[in-house]
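Lab manual, section 2.4: Encoding a predicted structure.

Procedure: take the sequence of the chain (101 residues), apply the prediction step described in section 2.3, and record the output as structure tokens. A sample record is shown.
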Amino acid sequence: MFSLGWMEISIILIITVILVGPKEIPTVIKTIKSITSGIKKMSKEFSSTVDELTHLDEVKDIKKEILDTKESIVKEGKDLDEFIDKNNKEILKENEKIKNE
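Recorded output:
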């Protein structure tokens, strides 16, 4: 940012007293304070909105990871079912052969 030394501050005060007048200085200070408060409030709102959007992106990424994991689990489950069915059929065939002998 920028910094103000005593010389700059005193020049600003002198110019303010000349332009505004000593009676209006409190009003000007209140106005400046309300403007800076408004700017700070808007800055906080902007930051919170950005944080919310970032959080939404993180949630979307987590949701995608969960769905990918679910799909892989379902695929592995189907593969396991096929393997079990195949082995059961082979076992039943072997049992039939043993019974017939």
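Check your result against the sample. The radius of gyration is 38 Å.
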